[in-house]
Amino acid sequence: MKMDPFIEAEEAAGHSVKHCCELFKVSRAAYYERKQDVPSQRELTDTELTEKITAVHTESKGTYGSPRVHQELVKRGVACGRRRVRRLMRRAGLEGRCKKRWRKTTVPDPAAERAKDLIQRHFGPCTELDRRYVGDIQCRHRHWVSYADRWTMPMLFAVCRSSGVPKSWRSA
Fold first, then answer.
1. Euclidean distance between CA atoms 20 and 32, whole angstroms
2. DSSP states of the chain as a string?
3. Which pLDDT belongs to residue 146?
């Protein structure tokens, strides 16, 4: 937490800056340096390094993350650390792009015969009992002798659409 606003308020009220700095355990030299708003040497080098990081990031079309940006800066002869590059990239809002995971999809055979729609796409409850069933596969935990030996078993449930009561189930 910065104590400068509190010290400035006390100074405006006519109180001693020395006493406030001692109370807040802040050195007077640091307070007056921050009050002059002169950037420190580290801030100046951080802005220069951020410009170089941004240049490398844009040259890579936004694909390089902090490890590759750091590697490229080392190749160019810029002395900096990995964590500093990571911190400055985070502060500048730069991040590398990663490849999307390839997902295998099912491609249906266009020549194959489609499944017959026996219920004419009517999934709601029916008027007659025990005429339409819906299936669901759920994983249930089976507990045996000890909790360390439990395992998951897939189970198939058949539910009547008119009453909502499970009629049968089977475990694999």
1. 13
2. ---HHHHHHHHHTT--HHHHHHHHT--HHHHHHHHHTPPPHHHHHHHHHHHHHHHHHHHTTT---HHHHHHHHHHTT----HHHHHHHHHHHT-----PPPP-------TTSPPPP-TTTT--S--SSTTS-EEEEEEEEEE--SSGGG-EEEEEEEEEETTT--EEEEEE-
3. 44
Q: 19-33: string of b/e by CB count within 10 Å (b at 16+)?
A: ebbeeeebeeeebee
Measured between alpha carbons, how far is residue 162 from residues 118, 135, 147, 167 in Å?
A: 17, 14, 38, 12
Mean pLDDT, 10 residues at a time, the chain of 172 residues: 75 83 83 80 94 95 93 94 95 88 77 79 72 62 47 56 62 54
Task: Give residue 27's pLDDT.
Answer: 84
Q: How far is 71 from 93, CA to CA, in rounded Å?
A: 19
Report the C-alpha gap between 75 and 119 in whole angstroms: 68
Query: Residue 70: its pLDDT value, please?
Result: 96
CA 152/CA 75 separation, integer angstroms: 52
